[in-house]
């Protein structure tokens, strides 16, 4: 009987030890973590959705989509030296690759890593979609929602798209942290451009209305010298992209004109500094007077202006989808172009020379 009691006591002790060990988890460094506390934290996070379910890797097969997250050195190995390296408003550097006619692509580099890209033109690998593809057929492959969400740490963001925005530039969630904007020509209903970007950069651009909980990141402040470089870069981006769009519509390539650029820049700066938006300055002068002041000889001329777009690429698609601006952008008679950018004000001056 005494032996039985000893056995029972030993069994109780063993079970008690097992219970104690089951309540805790031994970490690799030998410390002990309270499992009950950890489980309560997990329950809280699941209830508040602070830790979203991770999605799989990039689901699209096209080469373009795979570049986000890659090291910048891989770009030079694949594409060679970029045509330009331009500062951006958002802290990253644009590496621009274009032949100035058929293909245009630029990669946003931050900390030697590709964080965003924009592409237009032909011959680009965008599988399962294609540049120039009809809106409805793209929509069949991708979901164009009115609301697209993004979560990071303890913050959540919801982008609200209007019907007009979904028709011209829908937003698609590719992974939990990668998004795609598709730019459609609303006159032909064809895909003309694609932008792929991380959630953090999307928040900096803020291209749609948002509902959010948490803190919004602030756009980095640029020095006067940096802003000049940013503006000069966007001027050249608009010039090259204009010729790519014109080529797609069978129009002749435009030549760059420095003097016409100065006329355009002066108008952009004047609009920004005097807080107005018009083809006519507060002195009543229009494009005719501005070109005359710089002694520009021309046979005909036209002007496009834009303001408050996130960047040059967004402004270009805005012009393409506006009837009057589109007419100037694609007019076959013009021979030269000068583009002037001052902060978030954009001016294109087209002229026909003999």
TrEMBL record:
<feature type="domain" description="SCP">
    <location>
        <begin position="240"/>
        <end position="350"/>
    </location>
</feature>
<keyword id="KW-0812">Transmembrane</keyword>
<dbReference type="Pfam" id="PF14504">
    <property type="entry name" value="CAP_assoc_N"/>
</dbReference>
<dbReference type="InterPro" id="IPR029410">
    <property type="entry name" value="CAP_assoc"/>
</dbReference>
<keyword id="KW-1133">Transmembrane helix</keyword>
<dbReference type="InterPro" id="IPR035940">
    <property type="entry name" value="CAP_sf"/>
</dbReference>
<keyword id="KW-0472">Membrane</keyword>
<protein>
    <submittedName>
        <fullName>CAP domain-containing protein</fullName>
    </submittedName>
</protein>
<dbReference type="Pfam" id="PF00188">
    <property type="entry name" value="CAP"/>
</dbReference>
<feature type="domain" description="CAP-associated">
    <location>
        <begin position="69"/>
        <end position="208"/>
    </location>
</feature>
<dbReference type="InterPro" id="IPR014044">
    <property type="entry name" value="CAP_dom"/>
</dbReference>
<feature type="transmembrane region" description="Helical">
    <location>
        <begin position="6"/>
        <end position="21"/>
    </location>
</feature>
